[in-house]
Amino acid sequence: MKICCVIPTYNEEAFIGKTLASIASQTHLPKQVVVVNDNSTDDTQQIIDEYVVKHPWISSIYNSSENKHFPGSKVIRAFEKGFETLNNTFDVIIKLDADLILPNNYFERIVDVFKSDAKIGMAGGFAYIEKNGEWILENLTDKDHIRGAFKAYRKECFEQIGGLKPAMGWDTVDELLCKYYHWEVVTLPDLKVKHLKPTGATYDQSARYNQGEAFYTLGYGFLITTIAGLKLALRKGKPLLFIDYLKGFFKAKQTKKTLLVTKEQAEFIRKYRWKKIREKVF
After folding, report:
1. Structural contact between residues 148 and 171, judged by C-beta atoms closer than 8 angstroms
2. What sequence ranges are listed for the domain Glycosyltransferase 2-like (predicted)?
3. Which residues make beta-bridge pairs with 134?
4. What is the CATH number of domain 3-195?
5. Please, which of 3, 22, 126, 143 could form a disulfide with 102 given CB 3.0 to 4.6 Å?
6. Using 50, 70 and 90 to split pLDDT, how confident is the model at 236?
């Protein structure tokens, strides 16, 4: 199976070299890797260029965008720019962050999963962060969720869900739509990815309401948003974030923010979420 990767990159001079080195050492090399320099102001491009010279399957493009970090939209707009340049003959598309160290068999394992069952639409490992000299699980999501930092999609699934949504919540709605269209999502707990920069490290205060808005645009409704928001705030160790999430939800509801899904998909999502909640409670 042919793998293509797109790596949106913004001011990652400290990490992008390690990410590209881990890709170059894969037991199953990708057919094409596009690194999108999303208006970086540091030496990110210089480091990218070093790898472009070494490896003909790595290329780089520049995307002119705002320097301000907008969770979801900025990174996916950059991803789209890179995706447009890909050769369309790939079997698997992987969206990667620029602050990762992949185990050298990451792509090999992903390919094995997709080959094992034609119904599998998405696959990925687990994120680990360094704390007190040890690599521990970055435990922000359920174990059946693939982190947005390293998502792999079967081409047919990626096309059916309509690609990635340029908004916060994109890495949740993709999996929900995957299930809506009867694809399976597979996580591999033993496939450990080193995440060099903790999630949310670059988010500023203005982004604190975005998660609540994302819950609204996913079609969750108030009750599911309350449960999901409280769980996420507690996992982050910041209970007061729950209030910001609710403010964001009601702000989006008041302004009638456009949903990321159709009414039918939103209904499916709510039923699916309630099913998962009941399974955990009972």
Report:
1. yes
2. 5-138
3. 131
4. 3.90.550.10
5. 22
6. confident
Report which of 197, 203, 183 is spatially closest to residue 248, judged by C-alpha positions: 203
Other Cβ atoms closer than 10 A to 253: 15
Which two tokens mark 24?
């170059």
pLDDT per residue over 129-144, tens digit each? Answer: 999 999 999 877 778 8
Distance CA 202, CA 175 (A): 24
Task: Encode burial over 81-117: b for 16+ CB neighbours within 10 A, e otherwise.
Answer: bbbeebeeebebbbbbbbbbbbbeebbebbbebbeee
Model confidence, pTM: 0.90
Report the SS3 class of residue 221.
coil
| Cβ neighbours of 141 (radius 10 Å) | 19
Structure tokens at 253: 């509801």
Residue 49 and residue 60 in contact, taking contact as beta carbons nearer than 8 Å: yes
Mention every residue, 6+ apart, whose C-beta is less than 8 A from residue 149.
Answer: 96, 97, 99, 100, 127, 193, 195, 199
Strand 184-195 to strand 100-101: parallel, antiparallel, or no bridges (unpaired)?
A: antiparallel
Portions of the chain given CATH number 3.90.550.10:
3-195
Record the tokens describing residue 186, joined without a space.
């597979």
